[in-house]
Write a structure and sequence with these properties.
Layout: H1 5-15, H2 21-32, H3 36-49, H4 56-69
Length: about 80
Amino acid sequence: MSLSWRARVAALLADSPLVSEAVITDVRHLLSHGEEELAFDTMCSWIYEDALPVTRQFHAALIAMADEMNTPRSGQRLDELLID
C-alpha cells in the first residue's frame, strides 16, 4: 500500500531545505485542509524562490511526486538548484 499524497508531501516537507517557519506552517496548513497539490506547489515554489540547494535524491523525489500528481510545473527549474 502506498502512502497518501498528504503523507508523502509531509515527508518531503520534513526533508526539504525550507527553514522559514511561516512557509512550513503554510504548507502544513494546506495539507491539513486537503490541498495536497497546492501544498506541494507552494513548497516547490518557495524552494525555488529562496534558491535553496537540493540534493539529486530530493530533486528526484520532487519530480516523481510532481509527475504522480500531474503537476509538472511544480518541479520546473528546480534542477537549477542541484548540488552534488
